[in-house]
UniProtKB/TrEMBL annotation:
Matches recorded under InterPro entries: DNA_Rep/Repair_Clamp_Loader, P-loop_NTPase
Positions of the UniProt region annotated as Disordered: 56-78
UniProt-listed GO biological process terms: DNA-templated DNA replication
GO CC annotations, alphabetized: DNA polymerase III complex
Protein's UniProt name: DNA polymerase III subunit delta
Lineage, highest ranks first: Bacteria, Pseudomonadati, Pseudomonadota, Alphaproteobacteria, Sphingomonadales
Tree of life domain: Bacteria
Biased composition (Basic and acidic residues): 66-78
Length: 316
């Protein structure tokens, strides 16, 4: 995917690479879906001098969510779908640190990508801090963070921050026209509104055909759902067996719809804020919990309907 809004980040990164004392730890901060992980991998490849077309490089180490347990690890080894752990664990950090006791394999530099650093468990974060405090020569850390405030202050203080802004509606429309030429203008407009400046979220909206889901969420927020009919239709639009990617996109969309509702009403915002907080919790659990799709759809619909009821009382 074409990456938008990265010009300033590339300028800072390449200017640092050209200098004599490049900072050893970088915090890549911005909304989910703006391309931070893609930037981290591309920057790491430049750093270690990876050859064009080289898929894997021995001096680029990526820490991310691994299998939840030994059973899920065996599934991964067999090439089967597996359930992810909720966090990046201390064992992964320890394993990475063992690698740091040796010199880089090919050149003089090594890159460690942690994606997302927000999800380091507490012990893993404390272990990482030791490496940030005493970094081996030639080792550089790139920490991808959707919510930097969740990181230990001591980790943030040791990182140089690269900020990744959201993208303008006009740029998003041009990108969607390129990536999804068959999507009509109404679908692109809905995708841009739901994505709130995140190209990845807008692309998912179109590719996952979330137009009907967005329309039903909007109706629940506007009309309420006293007889549960709209919630039933919402569950059908989400699907009986959606994959994790679709569920993630649905939860992102629900939060975006709530924010738009808050922006467009003078009603008491507290129920919508409470609903948004609950959706944030569900979004955090979704990658690692085995949700029943129908029950999750009803829970999302109920949160939206409760926000709608509060608006009805305030408006009426």
């Amino acid at each position: 995917m074409t990456l938008l809004g990265h010009d300033e980040a590339w300028r800072e990164w390449r200017e640092a690479m050209a200098g004599s004392r490049m900072h050893h730890a970088w915090l890549l901060a911005g909304r989910r879906g703006v391309g931070k992980a893609s930037f981290a991998l591309a920057a790491a490849r430049e750093l270690v001098g990876a050859a064009p077309g080289q898929d894997h490089h021995p001096d680029i180490i990526v820490l991310t969510h691994g299998p939840k347990d030994d059973k899920e690890e065996r599934k991964r080894a067999d090439g089967k779908p597996f359930e992810l752990a909720r966090s990046i664990r201390i064992a992964q950090v320890r394993s990475m640190q063992q690698r740091l006791t040796t010199r880089p394999t090919v050149g003089s530099r090594r890159a460690i990508i942690i994606d997302p650093a927000d999800d380091l468990e507490r012990n893993a974060a404390n272990a990482l801090l030791k490496s940030l405090e005493e970094p081996p020569v030639g080792t550089f850390f790139l920490l991808v963070a959707h919510s930097p405030a969740r990181l230990l202050p001591t980790i943030r203080s040791r990182c140089r921050v690269l900020r990744f802004p959201t993208v303008s509606d006009a740029e998003m429309d041009r990108l969607l026209a390129e990536l999804a030429p068959l999507a009509n203008a109404a679908t692109r407009t809905a995708a841009i509104a739901a994505a709130a400046g995140s190209p990845g979220a807008a692309r998912d909206f179109v590719e996952l055909e979330l137009g009907e889901v967005a329309e039903l969420m909007g109706r629940i927020l506007s009309e309420g759902d006293r007889d549960f009919a709209l919630r039933g239709r919402l569950a059908g639009a989400i699907g009986a067996r959606p994959d994790r990617e679709r569920l993630q996109a649905v939860l992102d969309l629900a939060r975006a719809e709530l924010v738009r509702r808050l922006d467009g009403t003078e009603a008491d915002p507290r129920p919508a804020i409470d609903a948004h907080a609950e959706l944030v919790r569900l979004t955090g659990e979704q990658p690692t919990y085995n949700f029943d799709a129908g029950l999750l759809a009803m829970e999302i619909g109920t949160l939206l309907a409760n926000a709608a009821k509060a608006s009805e009382r305030a408006d009426g």
